[in-house]
Amino acid sequence: MFRQTLTYFKGFYLSIIILAGILVFGILGYMYFEDYVLLDAFYMTLITVSTVGYKEVQPLSDSGKLFTSFLILSSFGTFAYAASSIGVGILSGKYRYYFKNYRLEQEIQKLKNHVIICGYGNNGESAAQHLITHNLPFVVLEKDSAKLESLKEAKNMLYLEADAIDESNFLKAGIEQAKAIITTLPSDADNVFVVLTARQLNPNLTIISRATNPKTEAKLRFAGANNVIMPDRVGGNHMAALVTTPDVNEFLDKLSLSSDDTVNLEELIVTAQNEKQILVSDLENIENCLVRIIGIKKAKGKGYALNPKRNVVIENGDKIFILGQKEHTGLLRKKFGLA
Questions:
Q1: Which residues on neighbouring strands pair with residue 296, listed in sequence order?
Q2: Is the pTM of this model over 0.70?
């Protein structure tokens, strides 16, 4: 990080060194030739190199006049360059931009169990908004300047101005501590590369990839993608379903809208248990807590239990699907150790 900072602020540091060198040279010269005290020597040097032209502290001797002339000739261009270089860097926002990026990188390094979104197009933006709704931390990798502007305008949005197919940028995004990655790049070839790289860097990562060509789906899964989504196919199926089963789709859309005062469909994982076994009836019989268990995915095996009976035992690691308000599902999280 120090080397990166040194390179980025090379011009700034050089300008400071030039200014300091000129001031030190002038101060020592006036103290030697004119026997000035430090403050007077500093004042004379400053008004000389800045060409302000105020009256001298005291009349100069011949040696003092020669030194002043040399100081003016040697520092006229360099002083102006150094001062303007610092001023331009501050006024243009270049240094502010650097420190903003540094702050973002520091916050990203603190993330754990977060999601990495590759690409901030239509699909990437939709994924980001969904994660915000569910309070899941994420970071976006995007290199397109136009798309970056919308990221910069968004509040509390973590992002990196980076190419998603560069392995080093995944490390900056904390892929080793991430729980999932969503790649929505427009090129299938780039998505395959992202999937391969991500799977190599974090074997336990959940990888979801976009695909445009149906022939690419098998390649993405072979590369390590857990899920492959084709937006055109999904959109077409959804539009057709609005014709064939419009009320069912409207019902499912309402369930997918997460808010505090509506009934939502959520999935929770049993991460801790009391000594007593947890039954479906235990979850559904909490006082002032109206929820309904509509399904269970067992940790042991790949089967699903739809609309489970009330005496079914829920084991550690099982994933349960609940209909209920956020307030009520929150009570279940605390009481039964659900995540």
A1: 305, 320
A2: no
